[in-house]
């Protein structure tokens, strides 16, 4: 009988299973215990580090995994599933203001109390610092964005700051023999918001920014989004037309955030009211046309002595339900992942989590990966 690949190179005291059986069993195990199983024996480690197995495991466990910053230490970053189970806990070397945290693909980006932006790789636990802006371009008012460039096969960081009375964009390639140098790439076609939370989203190599004058949104169609192409390292010459705001709602106050959901740019339009709070989720379906589709209209439930506000959409599930993040105040401030069913217009709550200021977003990488993301 031919010896299986798993049994071929193991010692007499190592556990032996047919390769196909072991493969299928381990595919069903969550990532957290699998990381420990690498210590069982060399053959298990070889299998669990194999890129083919890691890809198959990621496909079997699509998530979502949510990245949150915790209030108890200011240094804890946790990756959890929608039931509130902590899959991995990470420590940041510096205390990080938890309202300045975001995710992109398999990275978590943070701003420390020391003023330095850093990138945390949850799979390896490695923290990398973004290089400082050039002195001539230094400014206190800046925004940093990290996005994946498929053409370069690397991550790029983008910063927009005020220099000489105008906004200027700088780009740097991260990882490997990058040459950690910032490259100036001009000014946006319209002044952009420089606050981090919900004002920018990176989708398929393009960074989308809200402009600084959101009041222009209330008269129906308006161009209040601008875009930077990370591949070409250039601003799109024209602004992007927004979702339509009905004329009968033009006098209402509402708030807009941008977020990436399932590979699409989404405009989350929050319309607070006295008795109800309604959130519309508009999906930007074609980057070459101003084509928006309103896929979800979510009414937050009201309850006595409980105040809730909408955080952000996180991920659309295969059955059309959507995972969103909700802030609750009862009696303490906390965050809760919630699954919304548009067919029944009902919610299913995950576990409430004590989060100080922010949920970073969805982690779409594999925690089994052993090679750094910024190689």
What order do the helices and strands come in, and which of them pair?
Blueprint: H1 5-8, H2 19-27, H3 31-37, H4 42-48, H5 51-60, E1 65-70, E2 76-80, E3 86-91, E4 101-104, E5 107-111, E6 117-121, E7 126-129, E8 142-149, E9 154-163, E10 166-173, E11 183-184, E12 200-203, E13 206-210, E14 223-229, E15 234-235, E16 240-241, E17 255-261, E18 264-272, E19 277-286, E20 291-300, E21 307-316, E22 322-329, E23 333-341, E24 346-349, E25 355-363
Describe this structure in words.
The protein has 375 residues and is mainly beta. Residues 1-11 have low confidence and may be disordered. It is built from five helices and 25 strands. It has two domains: 5-53, no CATH class; 62-363, Neuraminidase (6 Propeller). The chain is globular, with a radius of gyration of 22 Å. Strands 12, 13, 14, 15 and 16 form a five-stranded antiparallel sheet that branches. The protein has a four-stranded antiparallel sheet with strand order 3-2-1-25, with no helix packed on it. This is F-box domain-containing protein.
Write a concise synopsis of the structure shown.
With 375 residues, the chain is mainly beta.
Largest sheet entry: 5 strands, antiparallel
CATH architecture of the largest domain, by name, is: 6 Propeller
Total tally of structural domains: 2
Helix content: under 10%
- Find the CATH superfamily of the largest domain: Kelch-type beta propeller
Count of strand segments: 25
CATH topology of the largest domain: Neuraminidase
> Cα distance, first to last residue?
42 Å
Give me the strand/helix succession: HHHHHEEEEEEEEEEEEEEEEEEEEEEEEE
Main structural class: mainly beta
Shape: globular
- The number of helical segments is 5
CATH C-level category of the largest domain: Mainly Beta
In the predicted model, the low-confidence regions spanning at least 5 consecutive residues are 1-11
Radius of gyration: 22 Å
